[in-house]
Amino acid sequence: MGYSRQYYYKLEKEEVSKLSDTAAIVAAVQCQRKLLPRLGTRKLHYMIYRSGESCFKCGRDKLFDILRSNNMLITPKRRYVQTTNSKHWMHKYPNIAKDMVIETPEQLWVSDITYIKTLQGNCYLNLITDAYSRKIVGYAIQDNMEAESMIKAYKKAIAGREHKQIQTIHHSDRGLQYCSKEYVSLSVNNGFRISMTENGDPYENALAERMNRTLKEEFGLGEILKTKEIAYKMVEEAVFLYNNLRPHCSLNYQTPQQVHKKIPDKFLLYQGTN
User: Fold this and answer.
1) Which of 220, 233, 222 shows the shortest CA–CA distance to 39?
2) What is the pLDDT of residue 235?
3) Which SUPFAM superfamilies match (predicted)?
4) What is the model's pLDDT at position 188?
5) SS3 of 77, please?
6) Taking the CA of residue 2 as centre, how many other CA atoms within 13 Å lie in the half-sphere pointing to its CB?
7) What CA–CA distances, in Å, run from 137 to 35, 83, 96, 108, 164?
8) CA 109 to CA 54: how far, in whole Å?
9) Per-residue DSSP letter, 101
10) pLDDT grade, residue 233 (50/70/90)?
């Protein structure tokens, strides 16, 4: 064949080594996905590299190839059910968050409602997310869409504020719950400004919509769960893992909790001059 015996054995050894490295990388991925089972490939690459896994000797594109060949790539699930009723008589507020430059945690909170299916019927999850840190600062899950559940999430967010010197804007869609007297009073009594989407455009509340999708796709909340009690427990676990363990690409692969606890120095200096 025109090849020496030494060259043949060299190729054989390299192939065995390659298979061994691939198996080690797959094992490392499986280890990282024990707590975050639907973690994406870019975040996996960062987390394995950061953890100092000795087996990790490939770049991001090669990791994509390995996961693809092992049927381990995460495919997004496209689902959409409208949960907003904006056709009501109550006062609606203008969108003051549009084109806003977010410079610090707790400058802008976005809120939205999504559904979770169970064999006992639907549950409804209200999330309040900090636009700067991407941290879920408040949440509540109930088997109805009444304003009481939304207020519970809002109160949780307010009680956990870490930067009370920052004036917060609360942004949401124009749903009945967010326009209710009780919900609006919470904003007014705490010195928050109110912002709402206009013309029913979902892109005006894109971050909140994306948060719903992330929890459903990566933490199993998009599946049909057995009971409502399981849904409640899974939401609590998902929020904790998302805030404290899941690295975020837009946060330079930090977790939301790491980013949320600190106000940028340039913002403090800016405040001091005004």
Assistant:
1) 220
2) 95
3) Ribonuclease H-like (SSF53098)
4) 94
5) coil
6) 0
7) 21, 21, 21, 11, 14
8) 41
9) P
10) very high
Contact 112, 212 (CB under 8 A): yes
Ranges of H-type helices in the chain: 5-32, 41-51, 60-69, 147-159, 176-179, 181-189, 206-218, 228-244, 256-260, 265-272
The Cα 140–Cα 154 span in angstroms is: 9
Sequence-separated (6 or more) residues with CB below 8 Å from residue 224: 117, 118, 119
CA distance 28 to 43: 13
Instruction: Determine the 3-state secondary structure of 171 from DSSP.
Output: strand
Say if CB 110 and CB 78 are below 8 A apart: no
Q: Are 175 and 113 in contact (CB under 8 A)?
A: yes
pLDDT tens digits, residue range 132-150?
Answer: 999 999 999 998 878 788 8
Contacts of 250 (CB under 8 A, 6+ apart): 134
CA neighbours closer than 13 Å in the CB half-sphere of residue 121: 5
